[in-house]
Amino acid sequence: MPVFVEVIVVSLGMMVIFFLAFLVVFLLALFLSPIERELSKLVWSATNPPPTTQTKPRSSYRDFSKKHT
Question: What is the pLDDT at residue 12?
Fold first, then answer.
């Protein structure tokens, strides 16, 4: 087999392998995206702080001076 034919065959083989690897990673991400979405919802719902109850507003300096004059 001449050298230039071998170079072409090897180059085409490497490009085919590269695109097949890209396709495998793309399909893996495509199939795992629903699982990732559910896990993301689970994590965000667990990290949201619980709703706080309203506390009485703290008195200000003017309120203090009105009480103690």
Answer: 98
